[in-house]
Write a structure and sequence with these properties.
Two copies of one chain form a homodimer.
Chain A: H1 7-12, H2 40-63, E1 68-73, E2 78-86, E3 91-105, H3 107-115, E4 126-139, E5 146-157, E6 164-176, H4 182-199, H5 203-214, E7 216-217, E8 222-223, E9 228-234, H6 239-264, H7 271-290, H8 293-300, H9 305-308, E10 315-317, H10 329-338
Antiparallel strand pairs in A: 1-2, 2-3, 3-4, 4-5, 5-6, 6-9, 7-8
Helix pairs in contact in A: 2-6, 4-6
């Protein structure tokens, strides 16, 4: 009986039932007893919902607009809580999504995971649960960067005991400016280096490199932005260790991002600068649709399409064979995207 | 010795050599003797170059602008002739690309082909040659449709004899309006039905269905446009049969498209109609980057990125959870994208 006996889920926010035959937990599921410690999946869920509320509040404070929440249910199990602010004062589009999906992992998704080193049985569907928060925020001002983060917990579940037989944490936060301001890049990277260093001195150098590799747009031979940290498949320490690490990473986001926004959102800009931003947003779309693991996972596991593609910018542009003028600010930024630097 | 002993290539348009060590034909290659009939690959090349010139001339006549040609060389063999008209009077962006690429087929590409029914050896790289024309034209006016076509010839080559050991033709033309005008849809489909019927009465019904299936955006549960014809892996008849069919299809394009453009390009439009067009262009981007076979093939075989992504519109838009008003023209068009119709 695969059921997320989740007090958090039950108490806090059961998604509405838009489907005529909603997937209800099987009747054989045992609710968690009050003396049983909460499962990691429940604690992660609590964590990402708290982070969602905190981050939305901070972003509303600087934007002046309000997030709207849509909840959705996945027919095969689980669902999500999508919060989107569109057409705000600072943001063209900002999304803060929490999802908790469970059910049987399609062999195609297991194969993708094995391709990066997992050893999952791909001859049958495996019971799984994934809990995570995903954030993408696209400000209007071309001098203000887009930010993205994702913090997630994944487990393969034993159908009999409802306990994880395999689990790992993944996550990361990265910044995508159209115009690179070195002082912003330094502040951003230093912030995440500080968080990493609290946990393991090897984390930042390793996760920074991983991020540069992950967000590299192979067909363009350039990165989509200035990176940050990225990691996946972490399970060498206790789950508690990674829960704390995830929390610190997620809560660092509004702090550093609001500071950078304050520097940039009132900066005047030209039509030409707006067009450069639009071209860079085209690159963002290319990365997300061609390479992004989360997008592919969402499309393959039948997630809610509007929540998955919430990451796409409001507008984007593709000019044929466009090259910035030599020594222009656009060319300088492009150089940085082509050769990632050390910032912290 | 794998060399396209192509009189067409040699005589007409050898691409410039932007690379410091251009790939030159191996010295063991035997030039075609004057008494040898030209190879299919050479005849297809001639055909697509002629179609390119003809189509560009027809489009320049209605637009008033001029195509610019960029030639490119593929380091591993072959290259292309990309013609693009950007910022014209009628077109935001129109591209007419010819490419002739050859070399060793990456096992990943062979696997993609096997996935659709081929039986290629994926344990080693295979010598191949691909010749084709690709067209995508995005007009400014939201009442005027985008058109796309691709006609291609593919062969796997015996390294010793330089003769094909396997070959097939693929192609198709499809129309993507933002607002569906039934009279345009009928004219478009009838034109291609007429071409198909000249060759085989089973072609149009089969290729129309194939087109609807191919251009279906699974994650949206809608088609990107109103279809047309699509086919692949044809080799039951002689190569000559398919050469003639490809030629008739390619030359039908400017005739029917210019007729439709004349009906639409002077129609007034509102800002709201322009935004609907932009949203539909977002769908176009989603299809091309997530599903399109030609785009994937280009990215995997190291084609010129600006030529591959020439298909993307100048601008596109993604609004969160946007739904047209009931009974609006947008809703009527969307209904047609969701349930493909018979038009001819």
């Amino acid at each position: 009986a695969l059921w997320l006996a989740s007090s958090a889920l039950q108490a806090e926010a059961s998604p509405p039932k838009p489907h005529p035959t909603p997937s209800t937990p099987p009747s054989t599921a045992k609710p968690a007893s009050p003396t049983t410690p909460p499962r990691i999946r429940d604690r992660m869920f609590q964590l990402v919902r708290e982070a969602q509320s905190h981050i939305c509040a901070e972003i509303e404070a600087i934007d002046g607009g309000k997030f709207r929440e849509d909840t959705w249910e996945r027919p095969e199990g689980g669902g999500g809580w999508s919060r989107v602010l569109q057409g705000g004062n600072v943001f063209e589009k900002a999304g803060v999504n929490v999802s908790l999906v469970y059910g049987m992992l399609p062999p195609a998704a297991a194969k993708m995971m094995n391709a990066r080193g997992k050893n999952l049985d791909t001859t049958k569907s495996l019971p799984f649960c994934a809990v995570g928060i995903s954030i993408v925020m696209h400000p209007s001002n071309p001098h203000a960067p887009t930010i993205h983060c994702n913090y997630r917990y994944f487990e393969i579940i034993d159908e009999k005991t409802n306990e994880p037989v395999d689990w790992w944490f993944g996550g990361g936060t990265d910044l995508t400016p159209s115009y690179v301001y070195p002082e912003d890049a330094i502040l951003f990277h230093q912030t995440y280096k500080d968080v990493c260093d609290k946990y393991d001195a090897s984390f930042y150098p390793e996760f920074k490199k991983w991020c540069d590799e992950y967000f590299f747009i192979k067909h363009r031979k350039e990165s989509r932005g200035i990176g940050g940290i990225f990691y996946d498949d972490l399970n060498a320490q206790t789950p508690e260790f990674y829960l704390n690490f995830s929390r610190d990473c997620a809560f660092a986001l509004p702090k550093v991002y609001v500071e950078i926004l304050k520097r940039r959102i009132n900066q005047p800009f030209t039509q030409q600068e707006k067009e450069w931003q639009q071209l860079r947003r085209g690159r963002y779309v290319e990365f997300n649709l061609v390479y992004d693991r989360g997008t592919k996972f969402g499309l393959e596991t039948n997630g809610r399409i509007e929540s998955i593609l919430m990451s796409l910018p409001l507008t984007a542009r593709w000019e044929y064979d466009q090259h910035p003028l030599p020594n222009s600010p656009e060319a300088e930024s492009l150089k940085i995207f082509q050769t990632p630097r050390e910032w912290a």
